[in-house]
Amino acid sequence: MSQTVDRALRILPLLAEGPANLEQVATRLDVHKSTALRLLRTLHEHGLVYRQGDQRYRLGGRLFALAQEAMENIDIRATAHPHLVALNENCGHTVHLAVHEEGEVIYVDKVDSRYPVRMYSRIGKPVAITVAAVAKILLADLPGDELRTLARKLDYPRYTARSIIGPEAFLAELAKVREQGWATDFGGHEESINCVGAPIRGHDGRVVAAMSVSAPNVVVTAEELLALLPLVRRTAQTISRDYAGYTSR
Amino acid sequence: MSQTVDRALRILPLLAEGPANLEQVATRLDVHKSTALRLLRTLHEHGLVYRQGDQRYRLGGRLFALAQEAMENIDIRATAHPHLVALNENCGHTVHLAVHEEGEVIYVDKVDSRYPVRMYSRIGKPVAITVAAVAKILLADLPGDELRTLARKLDYPRYTARSIIGPEAFLAELAKVREQGWATDFGGHEESINCVGAPIRGHDGRVVAAMSVSAPNVVVTAEELLALLPLVRRTAQTISRDYAGYTSR
DNA sequence: ATGGATGTTGCACATGTTGCAACGAGCTGA
DNA sequence: TCAGCTCGTTGCAACATGTGCAACATCCAT
Hints:
The structure is a homodimer.
Chain A: H1 3-16, H2 22-29, H3 33-45, E1 49-51, E2 57-59, H4 62-72, H5 75-91, E3 94-101, E4 104-111, H6 133-140, H7 144-153, H8 167-180, E5 183-186, E6 193-201, E7 207-216, H9 222-226, H10 229-246
Helix pairs in contact in A: 1-3, 2-3, 5-10, 6-8, 7-8
The first copy, chain A, binds a DNA duplex (30 and 30 nucleotides) through helix 3.
């Protein structure tokens, strides 16, 4: 909509790939050097890009601070957090909380496993949308037409032999998830990692977030993890009640 | 420099305070509604802001993804991480890694305490710059004039009775830190939390990052923590060597 | 010294941004 | 049901702002 702002913002993902100098930025934006310079300066003034010693630009620290504050405004987080911690203390595994936002699913909270072998994930990281248990839960709640459109647009990377490939398989899996009210991911993202997840619902019954418990094969088998399902679902329901009571609107 | 981009970027910290509707944004930017609308739409297209159900805007998920990627480009992180983990396994306390960037100090890595009582901090969070051990270490390395300018500009919040207040006290503390090559924070930020930290240096001897070990009083006394100082300094030196060898430029 | 590569500045032009005014949608109370 | 309010959206004309150019500055290698 706004050309100038659009150009400036296109610089950010570009720099996210790695530091770049003025000319590289100008070339990739397809604008004159002087234009790129002005945009970079404006971003710099706002702390969104940082100029390192060798004159190359990279993303700046303000970005972290903003992401940080944004995270803290997500009110489901505050409600859920103590319950996630309690669940973690109870079962010892990694607990995740995720929300959906316009075609992306992102982790917004995480309580680490107490076992030395931990899975890699990080708050703020976009979730593998076609395979993760939390993603299935969140997307299963979308209206049918919107979901079909999304399913067609998605990529279906074959992370492992058990990854879900293609819109039909994905829609079928989501139908199952919607039906049963919970989801699993047994090695669909990383061979040796299993998850079980459950939805957190707002006062109107819509899914507002999803939580999951994850553990590597070397710690517990898929069956043992599945045995935790009732506990996970109970926790999700407790959070839902808490949230519905708490939410002001 | 660029008015349009400047206005657009001013929206971000504004939304970081909490969700806002079009009119609030327009008022706070001091522009017409239609202008604010166009800027918001552009930010929206890039995923930096998100429009929630009630039509209010808040910061969007792409921000997390960007911050995430930016973090992973900070190469000192990759070098330091295994050493931080090793130190954590050795002493059990929370370990932090921080860097300095234009007047701000931010945590870029963290390994959590194995004790149940953990301090609150989060990767990406700006550090309490006037009291934290890592901040003292990083700022102590700045050139004298730049440092004095900065010291005069800073706020000195009285977090606790032991917080450092005022530029003179701060500069004196930094001189001591520079002299001795390590820093502490005994309850200057939170009454019951102590830290000891050491600098990580690049090939030219300049401080490129700082690391620290933190623990609450209820777990170990300040004296016991101080006993870990040699270990912390040794780890920092190991990372420095690793980094100087590794760095390509 | 000389040449090349890259960052920076001032400026004239026209393109994109701006505020306005009018419209639309949703809500409230009479 | 309608008038009256608030708040988001749209089209447009005026002109402020962003744009690319060309010249200059700086740095490095030869």
